[in-house]
Automatic annotation (TrEMBL):
Similarity section: Belongs to the aldehyde dehydrogenase family.
Protein name: Aldehyde dehydrogenase
Source organism superkingdom: Bacteria
Every Aldehyde dehydrogenase domain range: 15-478
One Pfam family matching this protein: Aldedh
Catalytic residues, chain numbering: E251
Keyword hit for Disulfide bond: no
Naturally occurring in which organism (per UniProt): Actinomadura fulvescens
Keywords assigned: Oxidoreductase
Length: 491
């Protein structure tokens, strides 16, 4: 892997400086500048999309058979595996995340390329029942150039989740990573090109969303945008897609409920809840950030949760013992702190945390303590707005109907966790909650083979699974006449 701290971006197969504004990426643990690079401007987007269109149309890529294209994906997976340690360390440096988490994210990226390669080899079209003297079939074809836009919380995993199926579908990809965390996406770009992908099929264009991202979405040569990020940005991208009549997939925010019934296994529920909301310092779209606890055990359970949250190890991402690492940027930490302060002013009880940790070790980093709040109703802003930080709000519920009404009273519908010893309760509630993913007696576990996506304001479309590749393809129907005589028309 060359250039761990790259100062060049990948534009249409060439590594060079961007033509946009300088981008400074800082260590969230120390505030130090890690790299300054010239980001991509609109001209770079145009060059990348044009090069992508040429590369995608080249018979050397367009006409590859699925098993041949799969070989590229396997080679990429092999290189990710070979450089796993460097990639994890780089992502920890750039995002602040704990090294255990970034190792898992690198493993996930590698697994994504392998899974998609295998799935690609098994993709099938359909020979549909004909209604006349012809064969009818349904096949899938590449779109052309796909724009992929990713956020800063888990770059390598979210990049892989878009690049792998988009390449499998026979497309070129222009990736726009978040400006706060471009380094691992650029390193991934280097590995993908080192794996022998034909030039032009991948561009990596860090730059401000409002400039680089917007130019990518609007570019007439982009045939699909796959976006992961905040709901407001997703809505704006969806509006442009509607104008272009362009398919778009949107993986957006959440305010996911986790539910504790009185018959839940306490140890499992406590551990699952803490992991579900405080891992990744809460910077996770599926963070279980609202916990509903049955009235009969509320005080006892929440007190124990608070006691254990106070014991979580807060520290630098480089320490393998760290559970709660710094947030991705100081500005983001300040935003989270301001949301908690507003909740406190509005009457929320701060049961633990509610501030940055004290001491020299934490002074320069974007740290925030695991925080649990309660004493506010479900319609309070802190219960409705995505905080995207280590902040949990606890709420009591009286019975199942009350619970379902409260849990569903949210614009979001991304995920849900249910802790109960009764399989009938689990099934009933799982089916009643509006969420794209439900975890029962576990939380924040993922499989690349299982579709992922949101309901309501949490998004549109699904990633992962075998169908994930079809999301990057266009469907075509073919009627193949077999009759010896002409149609009864021309005499
Ligand atoms: P943003 O929506 O601000 O940014 C996401 C990406 O979009 C970034 O690359 C950003 O660029 C880019 N962007 C910003 N504005 C535009 C625009 N006008 N046009 C095109 N691209 C644009 O989200 P955050 O960075 O704050 O990420 C956190 C959000 O992502 C949370 O809401 C979280 O829930 C969600 N998320 C959802 C996931 C899911 O699978 N459902 C998974 C992970 C996160 P830049 O940053 O460079 O400005």
């Amino acid at each position: 892997m060359t250039g761990a701290f790259a100062d060049e971006i990948l534009v249409g197969g060439r590594w060079r400086q961007g033509t946009g504004e300088p981008l400074e990426t800082r260590s969230p643990a120390t505030g130090e500048v890690l790299a300054v690079l010239r980001g991509a401007g609109a001209a770079d987007v145009d060059e990348a999309v044009r090069a992508g269109a040429v590369a995608a149309a080249d018979p050397g890529w367009r006409d590859l058979l699925p098993h041949e294209r799969a070989r590229h994906l396997v080679r990429i997976a092999d290189l990710i595996a070979e450089h796993a340690g460097d990639l994890a360390a780089l992502q920890t440096a750039d995002t602040g995340k704990s090294i255990n988490e970034t190792r898992a994210l690198v493993a996930s990226a590698q697994g994504t390329f392998r899974y998609v390669a295998a799935a690609l080899e098994t993709m099938e079209g359909a020979l549909t029942p004909p209604r006349g003297p012809y064969l009818t079939m349904s096949v899938h074809e590449p779109i052309g150039v796909v724009g992929a836009i990713t956020p800063w919380n888990s770059p390598i995993a979210s990049d892989a989740q878009k690049i792998a199926p988009a390449l499998a579908g026979g497309n070129a990809v222009v990736l726009k990573p978040a400006e706060w965390t471009p380094l691992v996406s650029l390193a991934l770009g280097r590995l993908i090109m080192d794996a022998g992908l034909p030039p032009g099929l991948l561009s990596v264009l860090p730059g401000p969303g409002a400039v680089t991202g917007d130019a990518l979405v609007r570019h007439p040569g982009v045939g699909k945008v796959s976006f992961t990020g905040g709901t407001a940005t997703g809505r704006a991208i969806g509006a442009v897609a509607a104008q272009k009549i362009m398919p778009v997939s949107l993986e957006l925010g959440g305010k996911s409920p986790t539910i504790v019934f009185p018959d839940a296994d306490r140890e499992q529920a406590l551990a699952g809840l803490l992991f579900g909301v405080f891992s990744s310092s809460g910077q996770s779209c599926v963070a279980g950030s609202r916990v509903f606890v049955h009235d009969s055990i509320y005080e006892e359970f929440v007190s124990e949760l608070v006691r254990r949250a106070g014991k979580l190890r807060v520290g630098p991402g480089t320490d393998p013992a760290t559970q709660v690492a710094p947030m991705a940027a100081h500005a983001h930490r300040d935003r989270v702190a301001a949301m908690v302060d507003r909740a406190r002013e509005a009457g929320a009880r701060v049961r633990c945390g509610g501030r940055a940790p004290e001491g020299e070790a934490y002074e320069r980093g974007a740290y925030y303590l695991p925080t649990i709040l309660d004493g506010v109703p479900n319609d309070a802003p802190i219960c409705q707005e995505e905080v995207f930080g280590p902040v949990l709000v606890a709420l009591p519920f009286a019975d199942e109907d009350d619970l379902v009404a409260q849990a569903n009273a949210s614009v979001y519908g991304l995920a849900c966790g249910i802790w109960t010893g009764d399989y009938r309760t689990a099934w009933r509630v799982a089916r009643r909650i509006e969420a794209g993913t439900v975890w029962i007696n576990t939380y924040k576990q993922f499989s690349i083979s299982t579709p992922f996506g949101g309901m309501k304001d949490s998004g549109l479309g699904r990633e992962k699974g075998r169908e994930g590749i079809l999301g990057y393809m266009r469907q075509k129907s073919v009627y193949w006449g077999l009759d010896d005589s002409p149609l009864p028309w021309a005499g």
